[in-house]
Amino acid sequence: MGALLALASALLYGVSDVVGGVVSRRMPFVRVALLGQAGGLVVTAAAAPFVAGASPSAPDLLWGGLSGVGTGVAMVALFRGMSRGAMSLVVPVSAVGGLALPVVAAAVLFHERPGPWTWAGVLLALPALWLVGRGRSGSSPDARAVRDGLAASVGIGVQYLALAQAGPGAGIWPVAAGRVMAVVCVAGLALLGARRATVKATPATLATSATPALRLAAAGSGVLAAGALVCYLLAARTELVAVAVTLSALYPVVPVLVGLTLLRERIGRLQVLGLALALAASALIVAA
């Protein structure tokens, strides 16, 4: 059950990235991140009291808050990269780092010992995520996009690792606490960026009159991301962190599949290989 929840997390995160990436090209990326985290906060805070047996302790909320700091940093970096039109590069870079950091930390700090098949799936997932994000053009990567992806990967790694430390009796309150800190973090980064004049956007995204539909879509991307974290939190309570993180980190597969099925896009051979490796990695971990 935990593995299926982690895969559901990947699906929700992937759809969230597609929606957020499209919207971030039409309005400032910081606003997209802020609206998204606010939307996630409203939904999780409304749902948390109705989760049976939820009684969070102070450490549970602190771990959730730390995960929210990671989320805030990750979303700003991710949407900044995608606003530059580098979705196919930023998303897989963020996923590879976001997978590797928690898995290594879980093994070193928390002495998790996954079985050989699980390790095989983890190691297979790393090249799979990278290949999925490789385009057909073979053009050299944008250094700024790589930096955005690496920054997002650190935030995602903190998000996953911290959230997994919350106790099973906390319900989904750690996710709600994380959304509070994510809103604070994104707002702080927005103010810092405005003061240093580093928040830049294309002419299309500089328009201040975002339509209600765009604002709703931005908030919806955050609701989907919050749902993904709830699924991940539940998965981490029944699976090793390495397993939950690896399966949840397969979210870059979703944008590729959306482009292939809904947008009728053609994908390259490397992406086909990446999809096959991602499927094999999932099968190894689920079957372990």
TrEMBL record:
It comes from the Bacteria. Keywords: Membrane, Transmembrane, Transmembrane helix. Residues 1-132 form the EamA domain. It holds the Pfam family EamA. InterPro entries: EamA_dom, EmrE-like. The chain crosses the membrane at residues 61-79, 86-110, 116-133, 145-166, 172-192, 213-235, 241-263, 270-287. Belongs to the EamA transporter family. This is Multidrug transporter. It comes from Isoptericola cucumis.
